[in-house]
# Entry
Amino acid sequence: MKIALIGGTGFVGSAVLEEALRRGHAVTALARNTGKYAARDGLTVAQADAQDAQQVARAVAGHDAVIDAYNPGWGEAQIHDLFLKGTDAILDGVQASGVKRVLVVGGAGSLYVAPGVQLVDTPEFPAEWKQGALAAREALNRIRGRQQLDWTFLSPPVFLNPGERSGAYRTGGDEVPMVDGKPASITVADLAVAIVDEIESPKHVQKRFVAYS
# Structure
């Protein structure tokens, strides 16, 4: 497949890039600074600003699918506004390009811990992650209105860790997944497996799902 990837140098995006290339897909990585990528078989780098819908549209046109792993950085003071601005521009660009299939990588904050109670709204939720989590929740609300797109929103479980690729994972819906009475985890390598699996064989079109070990 021809896959366009946004955020391919980030924690999740870099794992997605490895997984997609491992499977022989042709990946176009969008980047403001193309020098962040080394030349590799199967990889094309396109100069594009994720916050500019027209640049995104030009770069992703003609691809089979887009994976949006955009994140302005957890240390960014304006992460909430920049995350939403970038997400809106990416989705506008994808829609304008004519590509229908897009997978957006979100967060765990919008998963439910009880009826009507999302993780990000609990007192225990870490303050340093809150603005990014609130933005990801709003992004999910906005993408649900994009009926023209065959979108999927993927949330990781509470704990997303470095680690080895096992190739195995489970899936859930809108609730925080629990294993043996504790919040579930997954390695970023296995999250990438779930992402590329969903692109190859869509099972959650116009839905959110969570992947966990």
Q: What stands out?
A: The mean pLDDT is 97. The longest strand covers residues 26-31.
